[in-house]
PTS IIA-like nitrogen regulatory protein PtsN
Amino acid sequence: MEISTILQPECTTCATPGSKKKVLELISDMVAFHHPTLSSQAIFESLVAREKKGSTGIGNGIAIPHGRLDQIEQPIAVFIKCDEPITFDAIDDKPVDLLFALLVPKDQCQQHLATLAAMAEKLSDKLILKQLRKSQDDSELYQVITQ
């Protein structure tokens, strides 16, 4: 799957959210702003519900928060590089600075899992991680994550 089919440039950003809650709110607000038929609150609740099952912090400074929504027909992604790493209850107890958030239709479980696996694999590439962390702006960040 091409990441650019689910991740738009306007949903890729360098930010300083400050906390896990704030970054989940940022993700929710970004998606709702670019998809006005969606509720920021519903998105946030979906992400929080998933986090309550266990942190989506996969280690090495990476988190892949995700949730399911009834109101969408295609997956929607957000990519954030935190200027300052945040505590995210990751499996390695290290703070997180790269987040790939994914929202999928409730009925697309297999696509959801395949997309998460593909992103986890991409983010395990040390060269890509180095380039992402060196990115200076949103445009550069988008270019690296979608290459």
About this structure: The CA atoms of residues 65 and 101 lie 5 Å apart. Residues 3-146 form a domain with the Mannitol-specific EII; Chain A fold (CATH 3.40.930.10). The chain has a mean pLDDT of 89. Strands lie at 7-15, 57-59, 62-63, 66-69, 76-86, 96-105.
